[in-house]
Write a structure and sequence with these properties.
- By secondary structure, the chain is an alpha/beta fold.
- The protein is 31% helix and 15% strand.
- β2, α2 and β3 form a beta-alpha-beta unit.
- The chain has a single domain, classed as Rhodanese-like domain (Oxidized Rhodanese, domain 1, 3-Layer(aba) Sandwich).
């Protein structure tokens, strides 16, 4: 697999080279277990990749389900990601602060909803 081709993973070097590209969108998908004592949104507010948007898995999930983090209806997903400036023709790069914990989940969500041009930042 070539990490220079943003299909699954992109390297930090690739992201640095493409960070200011008009079609690239970077999402911080950090999420921590409730008993971890960590707050992903607060950590995002303190430091994140320049231009990254915070992808709130708790808010975007199906809040009508009794189970955590179930896929939302497609309309909700599309509405939320459009608010983050993500749409057709955008390359999405997802990362998290736990080193590939919740980023893979968000990558999968994009794929389920038909956005195939999404990759995970290697190591993040």
């Amino acid at each position: 697999m070539d990490s220079e081709d943003p299909k699954l993973l992109v390297s930090t070097g690739w992201l640095a080279d493409h960070l200011n590209a008009p079609d690239v969108r970077v999402l911080d998908a950090s999420w921590h277990m409730p008993d971890s004592g960590r707050d992903a949104q607060a950590e995002y507010a303190e430091a994140h990749i320049p231009g990254a948007q915070f992808f709130d898995i708790d808010e975007i999930a199906d809040t009508q389900s009794a189970l955590p983090h179930m896929l939302p209806p497609v309309e909700k997903f599309v509405s939320r990601v459009r608010r983050m400036g993500v749409g057709d023709g955008h390359r999405v790069v997802v990362y998290d602060s736990a080193g590939l914990f919740s980023a893979a989940r968000v990558w999968w969500m994009f794929r389920v909803f038909g956005h195939d041009d999404v990759a995970v930042l290697d190591g993040g």
